[in-house]
Amino acid sequence: MSNPNRPAQGALKRRALFAGAGTAGALAAVAALLPSTPDTDAQAEAVPKAPPERGGGYALTDHVKQYYQTTRI
Questions:
Q1: Rounded to whole angstroms, how far apart are CA atoms 38 and 46?
Q2: What is the DSSP string of 61-73?
Q3: What is the Cβ-side half-sphere exposure of residue 52, based on CA atoms within 13 angstroms?
Q4: Contacts of 51 (CB under 8 A, 6+ apart)
Q5: Do the domain assignments include residue 58?
Q6: Nearest Cα residue to 49 out of 37, 61, 38
Q7: 25 domain residue, yes or no
Q8: Where in the sequence is the domain holding 22, given as residue range(s)?
Q9: Predicted TM-score of the model (pTM)
Q10: Over 80: is that where the pLDDT of 60 sits?
Q11: Number of structural domains found in the chain
Q12: Is residue 15 included in any domain, yes or no?
């Protein structure tokens, strides 16, 4: 006769599977929240542009032109 206090062998495998999946999910969430190391070369090369003399600050860049092309019907 089987022992009622001892879980079946299949139940243990299923529990181990779900425990492993939960652990992997938790590790992925923690890794996503950790700050990444900034690229120091990219920061050193970036030179800020001088502010416009007459105010404003809007610049028609390639990125903006691409956006305007996507909005045309």
A1: 13
A2: -HHHHHHHHHH--
A3: 6
A4: 57
A5: no
A6: 61
A7: yes
A8: 7-34
A9: 0.36
A10: yes
A11: 1
A12: yes
